[in-house]
Amino acid sequence: MRIAPRRITTIVLALSGAASAATAAPPAADRAAILAMQGEYAVTFRFEETVPLQAGYVARESKDSGAREVVILVEDSPSKIVLQHLLVAPNGHVTKHWRQDWTYEAASRFEFVADQTWRVRPLSPEETAGRWTQCVFEVSDAPRYCGTGRWNHAYGNATWTSDRTWRPLPRREHTVRSDYNALNVENRHTITPFGWTHEQDNTKVVREGERTVATLTREFGFNDYRRTTETDFGPAYRYWQATAPFWTEVRARWQAALDTGGLVLDTKLDGMPVIVGLFRLASKAKNGDAVEASAIDRVFERHVEPLPAAVAARTPATGGR
Q1: How many domains does the chain have?
Q2: Residue 151: which of 38, 35, 71 has the closest Cα?
Q3: Residue 318 lies in a domain
Q4: pTM
Q5: Is 112 within a domain?
């Protein structure tokens, strides 16, 4: 299951020629850019508050961290690409990380509308023509946020920029602060000669339902994925080979919940009951034990609820600022 270096090289070469090839139409060049995010990486994460937007607000210290992460292709069809991230610790321990789904000219997307609440919104043809919608999912495959935008190939390095959308408090924050409860975000992904980057233009906001009541500060996030050959990612490939069927079942449960129009998580903001419940079952699958469908269903029955009718009927708001 290791991604062959030759394949990565082929993708990068295709990208370098995409801007100059007159016949290289999006979505072919777009697809090459998304697929180029596969691979093995040393990753650095940096988040720095930049512009205070509230009187008396004192910027928090910047946050810097790093990880070793492999990005594996889960699904590849002409209009949809699914990439799964897996973390590998120095001792070889594997943690299933976030997932990104890319859909070309998507008919709808889920949107974060309140604490632990996501609603599916139809997208008009004007919003999606020539654009890809990226949806990002939690380690448990619970929804996080989506964004829609075009890939730009004009400068030789493919770059995708989203519209502004809402997303919940990031995991790096909700255990240490409670003075805001939502981020308004524009995301940018760029394919580089060394790998790829993820830039975030974040605004930290206090919301009551879908109404903004306070805006605290802006924050710049920069995640730099650089290819590495210095880490043994074998444990990650073995983990995914053993657990992929289980996580396929989990993804189907989340999709079924979203297909009703949206969902609410009946947990605290950290979502840990869902994460712990599903990770325990994943450990059984990793060890070769059978995981009954009813065991997965019980986690969802306990913690995942339909979207309330009042929220479902509300006129969806766009991302705003």
Answers
A1: 1
A2: 35
A3: no
A4: 0.89
A5: yes
Q: What angle do CA 133, 260, 263 make, to 5 degrees?
A: 75
Question: Which residues share a beta bridge with 265?
Answer: 304
Q: With the CA atoms of 270, 161, 150 and 129 taken in that order, what torsion angle do they form, in degrees rounded to the nearest 10?
A: 60
254 in a domain, yes or no? yes
Are 139 and 127 spatial neighbours (Cβ–Cβ below 8 Å)? Answer: no
Taking a C-beta distance cutoff of 8 angstroms, is the pair 162, 111 a contact?
no
For residue 320, tell me if it sits in a domain.
Answer: no
Structure tokens at 219: 């924050």
Cβ pair 249, 278 in contact under 8 A: no
Q: Which residue has the tokens 């070469």?
A: 13
Q: Identify whether 27 is preceded by a cis peptide bond (ω within 30 of 0).
A: yes
The 10s digit of each residue's pLDDT in 173-191 is 877 888 999 999 999 999 9
pLDDT tens by residue, 308-317: 988 888 766 5
d(CA 52, CA 72): 38
Count the alpha carbons within 13 Å of 303 in the hemisphere toward its beta carbon: 23
Distances in Å between the alpha carbon of 98 and those of 67, 114, 140, 149, 173? 13, 21, 8, 20, 16
Range of the domain at 17: 5-313
